[in-house]
Amino acid sequence: FSSLFSCSVAEQKWTELDAAQHRAHAMRLLDGLEVTARERRLKVARAILYLTQGSFGECDSEAEVQHWMRYNVFLLLEAGTFTALVELLNMEIDNSAACSSAVRKPAISLADSTDLRVETIQREDEADRPEWRASRETFRTELGSSLYNNEPISVMLFGMVTKFCSGHAPHFPMKKVLLLLWKSIVFTLGGFEQLQTIKIRRREGLGLPPLPEDSIRVIRNMRAASPPASASDLIEQQQKRARREHKVPCLPACYLCPAPSCPYGLIKQDNLDAFNEKDPYKADDSREEDEDSEENDNALETETFPLERDEVMPPPIPHAPSERISFPKGLPWAPKVREKDIENFLESSRSKFIGYTLGNDTDTVVGLPRPIHESIRTLKQHKYISIGEIQIRREEEYQKTPLSGGEEEVEMSPTELLYQGMLPSLPQYMIALLKILLAAAPTSKAKTDSINILADVLPEEMPTTVLQSMKLGVDVNRHKEIIVKAISTILLLLLKHFKLNHIYQFEYMAQHLVFANCIPLILKFFNQNIMSYITAKNSISVLDFPHCVVHELPELTAESLEAGDTNQFCWRNLFSCINLLRTLNKLTKWKHSRTMMLVVFKSAPILKRALKVKQAMMQLYVLKLLKVQTKYLGRQWRKSNMKTMSAIYQKVRHRLNDDWAYGNDLDARPWDFQAEECALRASIERFNSRRYDQTQSNPDFLPVDNCLQSVLGQRVELPEDFQMNYDLWLEREVFSKPISWEELLQ
């Protein structure tokens, strides 16, 4: 790096220069990106990468590296380096020579993607200086607008993903492309905290009542239920119970005794303190067991587990002998009722008591009993109108009255610009993401026709020692985990942002995910030992940046690699699992045909195994998926899984007139996947055509020119064959046909 500035800073360090010198050298680097010599240009790009990584060669601590990283990134941003890097990236994308050479190689290695690896620049969201804050906002606006090749940067990265999956550019470093795509979406559109703020602002703009609670805060304060016990735990539990019964003949009395202690050394309800002593989810058909542990039926033992905790499965908390188990007061979520639910309730009540119906009238209660009045009042108190319902009504009005409805005012937000850029090729983007997700899933088997996602992790020469092989194995597994994390977050963020921007944008993306078999793919992902995946240790902490460039690296051995780090679990994999579960919830919510797909693919046992992970947010979304299909799983399943039903009741939001736990008359409801999806697809196509397809306007609504002079004065281009046979046309169409001029004039 110092050789680039040998003419002026040969004896100085970057950290010793002042701001003016920093800017001068940044501009010199910027000029170096425009040289024609490829090696020189690549050398300058690597120097820029070194600066964005904090000039770590001159730093003595990780905090110092972080400081210079932020400083250098904002310095390069103000100098206009990002635009130059985007142009360089476009040139590398269109580099046909690199593509053709990579296609011809049987094995794609790390060297093929060296040119592209220098493009990824990490950027922080927080800033200390006012000028940095202004630069960040300007950069966010530029990144979300169509300034780069007439499309947002995210659309360009999506194009790289599809080009990689089609086999035309197998040398692309897909992990870095996906990470950059994720970060660009988060930076331009906003993360989960910003989504909540946008939702509140949108509801205020539409005149809707505020949200009943802050969902992020509720989930953070939610308690995790005890995981189901495995078969070995159940056997050990029975053996312990048998030993206690043999040693202590008065065990049932001790269990029910209100005294804090027992002369036999037992503690009241001792098994409540152990996580796996009593299985809250296990079907228990033994009546004696149910009678003995009747007080423990609600042993959905809970423990506060916010996301900021360092342990996903903490050790048991010791209770004092006289301490009683405290359960949360009330339910965590306020119940919701849709307008459609109130209409259905009124229609059924009128048909039952009066014998007539009034359609969509939810105000007339004449002739109904007083308890029905109270029920309707309670339902209306909890009525929730979503933003999507308002958007659907407005779209129906635009479709009914295209002329008198007026022009729709579309806010050109970053989400709207991204959707417009993705719209022409959105199905291909979704298929490409799911292809990569399938290749990176731990349950997928290597196939000859599958895509190679390891192009930027495999070395040119394969390892020759055991230590090198183990290190490469850790790198490959970590590489796949990062890809899964990036794709799961991209899908969830796009679905949530599109749903807030317009419901049919969300439905368009969700439907193409369903058509690309996203639902069975996610279920296949969870059809593994999910606890092993959550607790995987595919990272080497001493090699993490910036630790590896500041401290001296210890000698790596096979034993240290096998032991892994000290963390009991992997936040990265837990984050990916939660995102995939939330995506599956988004795809199936209020969609009967997609819910039946969960039933057909036998997702219930797969999801129940995921409940073993003792994390509140993950358990919540697993229970949501189980709740929507409970009514279709049969009475026997509900009877043998009452602990799971109790957990659903305790943790998932209630719909007041939803008989999810019974399924009385819906068991025979027909499942017509094609009809439901076709009706939804027709609505989506009408929306996209009305708002975005300006060329396919309805000819009946186009203005008509009735002026004779302007019509005759228009120049009409006649085809060449018509001009050659003009005499024949005159003879056939004019001279040979009698014309009644009197009738024509009248």
Automatic annotation (TrEMBL):
InterPro entries linked to this entry: Far11/STRP (IPR040185), Far11/STRP_C (IPR021819), Far11/STRP_N (IPR012486)
Domain Far11/STRP C-terminal intervals: 369-726
Pfam family, one: N1221
Region (Disordered): 276-311
UniProt-annotated location(s): Cytoplasm
Superkingdom to which the source organism belongs: Eukaryota
Far11/STRP N-terminal domain span: 1-271
Keyword terms: Cytoplasm, Phosphoprotein
Biased composition annotated in UniProt, kind: Acidic residues: 286-300
Biased composition regions of type Basic and acidic residues, renumbered to the chain: 276-285
PANTHER family for the chain: PROTEIN REQUIRED FOR HYPHAL ANASTOMOSIS HAM-2 (PTHR13239), STRIATIN-INTERACTING PROTEIN 1 (PTHR13239:SF7)
Family to which the UniProt record says this protein belongs: Belongs to the STRIP family.
Protein's job: Plays a role in the regulation of cell morphology and cytoskeletal organization. Required in the cortical actin filament dynamics and cell shape. Part of the striatin-interacting phosphatase and kinase (STRIPAK) complexes. STRIPAK complexes have critical roles in protein (de)phosphorylation and are regulators of multiple signaling pathways including Hippo, MAPK, nuclear receptor and cytoskeleton remodeling. Different types of STRIPAK complexes are involved in a variety of biological processes such as cell growth, differentiation, apoptosis, metabolism and immune regulation.
Record protein name field: STRP1 protein
Gene source species: Polyodon spathula
